[in-house]
């Protein structure tokens, strides 16, 4: 009886040792660093067929991260232009600015090539829902799949350069020149601006405007409503045509004010700055009833666009294996090549994408949503930008690694 027990115990011990060795080997593979980009480029790949092999994240999601990182340096360049304005227009102006300016954001978009900004946009946005919804103009964001926003500092005059928030386009109305953005991971304690009703707006009443004219951040100006114009049509230099009820204003409006709120003495929003007729002192804002209708339709279907992107592309997919056991999916797009690195269980470990401009985006620390918790964007110039993500989109962009 005892010999049989000994043999069984020996067999059990052997199986346990083998299992432990297997677990140790798998653990070593999972803990081992993924191959660097230069090694990924040298792996032999075969073209994926019948749908085999796929990126952990598709082109549009990658482009969203890249666009947010590209817009960020533009934000750093304009942040020093903020100075707390000296308010001399009376107690009502001071009260309106202090109450509403924390709900006014700086909206930035940019395209970069060879580490240089070739096209950029700067506008104003206003918080219209505490969940992180931002109202701005259609013409501020058109042509850009991703953007970032900065908030006015609560203390001092220097906005936090390490707190750029990623946003996504939720809805837009080209005709009325309106767009609704959603901050992907909004900070707590946001306050939405309150809306006035159209019937309460009076010609000749005082109005207050907060925006970023010519990059002078969180600037205040005042004026009066000259008239309310029904079915007013206008167009921009790009040829886009627009039609809506507008407020005609006599006040200072310049590029960068677009998307800023027009407010009454009670800090209620009367309209959204749209455009000015240069040299004629004629300025216009989309009226609040048009905004309300747009908001109602957009927030009723607030999930629409939550997981979509305007830029989509199907690349050529290839599969390879590194000598240390990682499985690599390589996808070549028109302007970037991505490599998804997976361990022996098929779980993503890292994602590396190199743009045609030579910039490198690296995602690490996989999360439960199919994305990566930390991203690093290294420009060809050597500058590095970091992004935190709680899902599959950029949350907070910064110059240094967060905790």
What does this structure look like?
- With 403 residues, the chain is of the alpha+beta class.
- The chain folds into 2 domains: 34-57 and 314-398, no CATH class; 82-300, Thrombin, subunit H (Beta Barrel).
- Helix content is 21%, strand content 38%.
- It contains 6 helices and 22 strands.
- It has helices at residues 2-31, 37-42, 59-78, 91-100, 138-141, 288-300, and strands at residues 45-47, 104-113, 116-129, 133-136, 147-151, 164-173, 178-183, 194-195, 206-211, 219-235, 241-250, 261-263, 268-277, 282-287, 316-321, 327-332, 336-342, 348-355, 360-366, 372-378, 384-388, 396-398.
- The strands form 2 sheets. A 6-stranded antiparallel β-barrel has the order 2-3-4-7-6-5. It has a 6-stranded antiparallel β-barrel with strand order 9-10-11-14-13-12.
- A hairpin with a 3-residue loop joins strand 16 (327-332) and strand 17.
- The model is unreliable at 1-31 and 303-311 (pLDDT under 50).
Strand runs, count? 22
**According to CATH, what is the topology of the largest domain?**
Thrombin, subunit H
Widest sheet: strand order? 2-3-4-7-6-5
Strand content: 35-45%
Head-to-tail CA distance between termini:
60 Å
How does the major sheet shape up?
Answer: 6 strands, antiparallel, barrel
- What is the CATH architecture annotation of the largest domain? Beta Barrel
Structural category is alpha+beta
Give the uncertain stretches in residue-range form: 1-31, 303-311
Distinct helical segment count = 6
Mean of the pLDDT scores? 83
Order of helix and strand elements from N to C terminus: HHEHHEEEHEEEEEEEEEEHEEEEEEEE
**Percentage of residues in helical conformation:** 10-25%
Supply Rg.
26 Å
**CATH level-1 class of the largest domain:** Mainly Beta
Count of discrete structural domains: 2
Characterize the overall form.
elongated
